[in-house]
Amino acid sequence: MRRPLIAGNWKMHKTAAEARELARAVALGCAGQDGLDVLLAPPYTALSAVAEIARPAGLLLAAQDMHWAEQGAFTGAISPGMVAEWASHVILGHSERRALFGETDIEVNRKLHAAFAQGLLPIICVGESAEQRDAGQADAVVAAQVVAAFEGIPADEAARAILAYEPVWAIGSGRACDPAEAARMMARLRAGLAERFDARTAQAMRLLYGGSVKPDNIRDYLAAADIDGALVGGASLGAESFNTLLRLSASAPPG
Ligand code: PGA
Fold this sequence. Notes:
By secondary structure, this protein is of the alpha/beta class.
């Protein structure tokens, strides 16, 4: 059985003080809630502040990105070791990194190797653009991103990775992917992972849906057998909406 995971990606929101306050409210909201992993991904500058609250509350913590090198002359970048001081997880290849910062599949793959080398658990994001979907390329684009990301990664490491399917057109747009279509895409993703690795590895991996997840649609996604949770942006920025989403997820019947 894969344990459901709900991850809040705060993107470039929240100062350390604001992040501390939100993390406290989420920790209170999840107190006593079992059967669900909750992960927070604050900006780098708030990782240490949120770690102090997340650890005792049993919340998981992720950085939103990192460099692949251990150290060096990379002004403005953060190394895997720096992330690992505070966090257990790292988001890699988010579509905003790919689209706005020119991140390539090759860089995502380097970061994935670096994450495992550092003992960090990766959340790898893949997803097609609106143009690619309209051209009928969604399945092929996503499959290619997965193949590229996992180049040279052995099955035992892949089994511990988390994969987030986030159609780019659904992110921050309020236009969430139809749950049946998300379920279809993610069933294909898992089938592709079984081919690339093996059935056991594919079954072990947690697959998240992301893109305009809100309290009023979260259960539609969790109902799908291949959707093990969600990567949530906008709806994770307020304690009330995120806690509502977590409560609805914790009580959702397993898909
Ligand atoms: P959103 O963002 O929930 O605001 O659409 C999701 C994401 O970027 O992970």
